[in-house]
Amino acid sequence: MFKHEKKLFREVSVERPNPQYAVLLQEQLGGGNGELKAAMQYMAQSFRVKDKQIKDLFLDIAAEELGHMEMVAQMINLLNGHDVDFSGVEAGEIQSHVLLGLSPGLINSSGYSWTGDYVTVTGDLCADLLSNIASEQRAKVVYEYLYRQIEDKKVRDTIDFLLNREEAHNAMFREAFNKVQDTGSNKDFGVTEDSRIYFNLSSQSPNKAFGDTKAEPVSFNGADR
After folding, report:
1. Is the sign of the CA dihedral 150, 37, 30, 27 positive or negative?
2. Which residues contact 133 (CB under 8 A, 6 or more apart)?
3. Residues of the chain with confidence (pLDDT) below 70
4. Cα separation of 192 and 67, whole Å?
5. Buried-most residue among 75, 183, 185, 210 (CB within 10 A)?
6. CA-to-CA distance for 64 and 56, rounded, in angstroms?
7. DSSP three-state, residue 218
8. In Å, how far from its chain's centre is CA 26?
């Protein structure tokens, strides 16, 4: 069960409108590494989780991501300003000015609609946690790119907060993975001697033809098999 509280997770403000930057910020609203994707992924994954503590973790973070989505939408609102004027905007802003009336949309920065294809659910807790760790890392990277592309101190302050929350979620998922890393697909498959071999496919003598190089297996610690 969810409930709506009539306040933002954290207050949002901007120094001045910046419609072109609002287009870039759409990536974190309706993009493949954005807040909606994260919320839907963690919520969908939680339906199958039997560990009550990890299930709560997934749902708590999903709920927070929805709060982040609301913050991003408010930033886009403020950055878009108040005047719909298709003739006075760059091509990238046409979507919000012509189709959405300056509303934040469930689209990415290129105008493509959000899709459930962004969401990864396998039913295997190890695989899903690794997907979530990667998702948080990618979202963090996108926020870092966005941070560098604007000088607005108030926008930067909000992005800095969101970026740090992505890192917090990353740490929580890594801790959960450490708890279950010997279960599921990590226990059932990939545990023979073959799973501990590294094939050095990069070494070759400069005097040999490319196709003459023979792959030699070595262990992960560098010793011969």
Report:
1. positive
2. 170, 173, 174, 177
3. 84-95, 97-98, 188-191, 203-225
4. 44
5. 75
6. 12
7. strand
8. 13
Length of the chain, in residues = 225
Give the whole-angstrom CA distance, residue 131 versus residue 136. Answer: 9
H helix and E strand count, the chain: 8, 2
Tokens of 116: 């459930």
Question: Quick one: how far is CA 64 from the chain centroid?
Answer: 14
User: What pTM did the predictor assign?
Assistant: 0.82
**Tokens matching residue 121:** 């659910």
Query: Which residues in 123-144 are b (16+ Cβ under 10 Å) and which e?
Result: ebbbbbbbbbbebbebbbebbe
The residue type of 162 is: L
Cβ pair 58, 49 in contact under 8 A: yes
Residue 167's SS3 state is helix
